[in-house]
Amino acid sequence: MTMGDPRGIGPEVALAALAEATPGSFHRVRLVGVREVFQRAAFERGLTTLFHRYAEDLLEIRDPLDESGPDPGRILLMELPHPFGTLTPDQAGRWAGRAVQAAVRELRPELGDALVTAPIDKHALALGGYAFPGHTEFLAHLAGSRAVAMMLVAGALRVSLVTGHVPLAAVPAEVTPERIRQVFALTRDALRAGFGIEAPRIALCGLNPHAGDGGALGSEEMRILEPLVAELRGEGGDVTGPVPGDTAFVRAVQGEFDAVLALYHDQGMIPIKLHGFGAGVNVTLGLPFVRTSPDHGTALELAGTGRARADSFRLALQLARDLADRPGFTQPGLQGSFGLVT
């Protein structure tokens, strides 16, 4: 479990999720980050005893730019700004990125390891030297994965994103038959191997209002999506579409589809958060290891107030455990050899 942005709610909800978990739910849990960040979060949430249970096995990171003192990179509790919100964004981003990198390097998927990440601030991550738009792209780089996708899970609703952290203006050019095929295959395989659905039923959203309305509101459906759906169905895929985005998710919640392919970030994220905010989990498909995360951000304004809920992080922990126990969910990869940013 990584700490995420040290200024945010990640460290405290990670510990709170462990406190809420059923005893014996996990064979081993290892925290990754700055010890003092977790220590202070534990103190502020009244979880010091629980933190001590995991402190000995904590994987500590060091700041590579701090070369002062007898122990380069060692950050003492008294030297940390209080509250952590006073850290500069580049410091916070550097620590958050280091935690992810260190965690991935330690992963051994063949032994059932899984990764649960606390939220990061994407702007801070970039300022800290990690030029990735989000966790998904960062982890794909570390693992050497060519095709990955975000799947959001909230109760009966599962949504995979064809495009992720890209500007809306760039989405039409990114919605290609090749990319949709990738995400369809990743989603189908995940539903089979990870969720026990032998014959997945998948809906593909349209790009334009009313799925183009026969070309009156855009041509992408007729030019790209309809021919591709016909091809996939001809190959044995149970795929329906293009389905208007304003009805696809309702039909999925009602049980007609096992998953929905959303063509852009907010098309998929808005219904997920409306359907189950605080109960959603992000799963990265296509990695050689299991990775999940909560469905919320850093919530800097809530850090240290004690008001941040841990439900989503607890569910992310549980889903990571369940998926790690299912053979065939992860993609083949160079197991045990990832973690270096070049």
SS field, number of helical segments: 12
What is the architecture of the largest domain at the second tier of CATH? Answer: 3-Layer(aba) Sandwich
CA distance, first residue to last residue: 23 Å
What is the spatial order of strands in the main beta sheet?
3-10-9-4-5-8-6-7
- Give the CATH level 1 class of the largest domain: Alpha Beta
Shape verdict: globular
Global structural class: alpha/beta
CATH fold descriptor of the largest domain: Isopropylmalate Dehydrogenase
Give the helix proportion (percent range). 25-40%
How does this model look, in words?
With 342 residues, this protein is α/β, with parallel strands linked by helices. The protein has 2 domains: 1-148 and 286-342, Isopropylmalate Dehydrogenase (3-Layer(aba) Sandwich); 150-277, Isopropylmalate Dehydrogenase. The protein is 40% helix and 12% strand. It is built from 12 helices and 10 strands. The protein has helices spanning 10-20, 35-45, 48-55, 89-106, 122-127, 135-143, 171-174, 177-195, 220-234, 245-253, 265-276, 311-324, and strands at residues 32-33, 59-60, 114-116, 149-154, 157-161, 202-205, 239-243, 259-262, 281-285, 290-294. The strands form 2 sheets. It has an 8-stranded mixed beta sheet with strand order 3-10-9-4-5-8-6-7, with helices on both faces. Helix 9 (220-234) links the parallel strand 6 and strand 7. Helix 1 packs across helix 2, helix 1 (10-20) packs across helix 12 (311-324) and helix 2 packs antiparallel against helix 3. The radius of gyration is 21 Å and the shape is globular. The two termini are 23 Å apart. The model is unreliable at 64-82 and 334-342 (pLDDT under 50).
